[in-house]
Amino acid sequence: MKKVKASETLVQTLKNWGIDHVYGLPGDSIDTVVDALRKEQEDIEFIHVRHEEVAALSAAAYAKLTGKIGVALSIGGPGAIHLLNGMYDAKMDHVPMLVLVGQVTTDVLNTGFFQEVNLPAVFEDVAVYNKQIDNPETLADVVDEAIRTAYKEKGVAVLTISNDIPAQAIKASLEAETVKFEQENPKLNEANIQEAVALIDKAEKPVILAGLGTKHAGPELIAFAEKAKIPIIHSLPAKTIIPDDHPNALGNLGKIGTKPAYEAMQETDLLLMFGNDYPYSDYLPKKAACVQIDIDPAKISKRYQATVGLVGDAAEIISNLTAKIAPVEERKFLQACQENMQEWWKWLEEDMTKTTDPIAPEVVMANIQKIADKDAVFSIDVGTATVWSTRYLHLTPENDFIVSAWLGTMGCGLPGAIAAKKAFPDRQAIAIVGDGGFSMVMQDFATAVGLNMPMIVVVLNNQQLSFIKYEQQSAGELNYAIDLPDINYAKFAESCGGIGFRVEKMADLESAFENAKLATKPVIIDVSVDSAAAPLPGKIVMDEALGYTKFEIQSVLEDHRFAKMPPLKTILRRFL
Ligand SMILES: Cc1ncc(C[n+]2csc(CCOP(=O)(O)OP(=O)(O)O)c2C)c(N)n1
Ligand SMILES: [Mg+2]
Prior knowledge:
POXB-like; 6-stranded parallel beta sheet; TPP-bd_CS; globular; alpha/beta
């Protein structure tokens, strides 16, 4: 066997797993790995970002979009610490990530050397696999196991590599092989299926709450819901599992969810929790029977007491249920929910057609919708952008819609768009971000320009941390530390070599979007939006309502116009 560098075996292992790009930033303690990647740049692209946080957030977003492992690389010490945010995003949204970080050389390891940080200790909480490499001979095997574990555990595998180890010569073959991860799904439990079928057949007001565990099971979910005439509510990140305009769709649930979804949940007699780990118990039924599907047995009854737990693959279980349940000709509960939903859309339409200045964020959503391709990929930042995008965009399963769902980190929008262009170069990528979130990562717009990744970044520029403004108000606190001095993001775009549109008046909004659609370079549309636009909860739960009252902004409660929408209970009375 011929002698090769250990770093070559590392890179070969990445190739064997079909890894074709790495997000990162080089530096002394990871230089030997970077050098090996340089030699294989035809097969593995090095996406050189300007901040390691963007590397990790992009790697997480790539995994959310494709199901394939995302890879981030950095030096040890400060660079490794910068990666943490994206690593937690991957951990908490349950997607596979591989992180390669450098470390000081073994001759000075454990001496408190320059940039020496105890990385295995730093990563202990975030990682499902966390090894310090001390033997060049086994490097490739450890990389292989790390990737396999990341896939199996849907989490982050970290390798901390002293820079001298990959440079060492070892006896190894560099033969290419194709490696794939295959997981066997648990076998269905027929007795539990029968029990679930009986509950579904008996229920009068069943409701589905679908999460990302049904991402691959959209058609099965729709067939099930249509056969039994059941409304479908989704968790926020599961927005594109069924079309927003599907007749059974009631939108998402929660603080930024729809009123029809909240009300259906309060009325239901059978909650069908399909592939989600929904944490906000205030929004779940007070008391209902529950059929829960999850691939992970530990999740059954974790959030809501399941009458029947079905462990396994959602697509398989749902189609099994569909075959066994009785068809329902007409379900009054669904009809009432549908009417409620039509009112909701009508109410939203009114917001989307406002023509006055200052520009309403809802109108920005209408313009985004107008120029969006049928299969556009949306990457949404955390802030009011999350509310406007989730609530006002009408999407379908042809779209993708990614957010930082469980970590909820600001700054995820732009990295997600970079990952989208890497995952699907031919699809339109649209990032919808706030000025606060964008300015946390904006330096990497230059990365998108450098990589020639056409994308549209819509900055909802309200010169404040608006989401927090309302959070403070709903808690009855006075507003504090929420102002953001203005930046001209359009000029910034141009200084990076991209295209910028600054929109301060309604009159300029439409043309900016039309021009952005035609651009072949990354674009920022910097829209000055109404800073008083309140992202009101679909249903204000009691403690929030009390907070608003304490703050004495009665107008928020008075102006929200929910009063115009009859509650589901009233609509139901007409149907029953
Ligand atoms: C990294 C991080 N820091 C702080 C927060 C808390 N937080 C949530 S939304 C938000 C405000 C977002 O402001 P901006 O991006 O300007 O959007 P806006 O709400 O103004 O539309 C803050 C500070 C967070 N989620 N993530
Ligand atoms: Mg803002």
